[in-house]
Amino acid sequence: MNSHLIEKALKIKLNQDQIEKFQKYYKHLVDFNTHTNLTRITDEKEVYIKHFLDSVLISNLVDFNEINTICDMGAGAGFPSVPLLIVFPHLKVTIVESQIKRVKFLNELQEILGITFEVVHERAEVYAKNNLNKFDCVTARALGELNLILEYGIPMLKVNGYFIAPKGSKYQEEIAHAQNALKVLQSEIVKISTFDLIEESGFRANILIKKRAHVSGYPREYARIVKKPL
């Protein structure tokens, strides 16, 4: 059973309900993917490693039992927030997703899994403007370069909240480009977890960033962000 991959990595024991939720998640993902492209990864073991396991491993950065609210920007098919919600059911999850096909998938997923999370059909920077200082944690798995997504995400954090950025092999380059954004947004990198996913499934660098103080005026309008990134 592929759920043991998650148990082994996190050193936890999933209950039967959690195991079944991951199974239903996989089935709905593959079924929906037959008519609407969500992922190129459809092999069951690959989905468990590259989507489910990859998502929950960000919980190794910080104690998720101490986090109550999390915003996932551009989650696509729900990664990393929905796997995290299955493992940590106390979380109050908000997913901000701009593509309506993905919103439809996520709303159906709630019904299938019998869990509740908020799905907002909106661009991340627009949502952020109206939801400042709101979340304990913000994450974005595949939304864009670090210096850009920091401007979306950091303003939504409470002071001392955490931004988690899962990145790949070019993470050092992205960090270098994000130094000014970190400075302007009064945030700092407090931990970086680098590792290879099992079965040669790819390199990961999970970056943990802490918000030290709130800075007014961010995020800026999208056109300004793109034209002149921090």
TrEMBL record:
GO molecular function ontology, one term from the record: rRNA (guanine-N7-)-methyltransferase activity
What the entry lists under InterPro entries is as follows: rRNA_ssu_MeTfrase_G, SAM-dependent_MTases_sf
Keywords (A to Z) from UniProt: Cytoplasm, Methyltransferase, rRNA processing, S-adenosyl-L-methionine, Transferase
Cellular component (GO) terms are: cytosol
Identify which top EC class this enzyme belongs to. Answer: transferase
State where S-adenosyl-L-methionine binds.
Answer: 74, 79, 124-125, 141
Location in the cell reads: Cytoplasm
Name the EC number(s).
Answer: 2.1.1.-
Q: What is its main location?
A: cytoplasm
> What's the stated role of this polypeptide?
Specifically methylates the N7 position of a guanine in 16S rRNA.
Q: Which family does the record claim for this protein?
A: Belongs to the methyltransferase superfamily. RNA methyltransferase RsmG family.
Q: Which PANTHER family match?
A: S-ADENOSYL-L-METHIONINE-DEPENDENT METHYLTRANSFERASES SUPERFAMILY PROTEIN
Q: Which named protein is this?
A: Ribosomal RNA small subunit methyltransferase G
Instruction: Tell me what gene encodes this.
Output: gidB
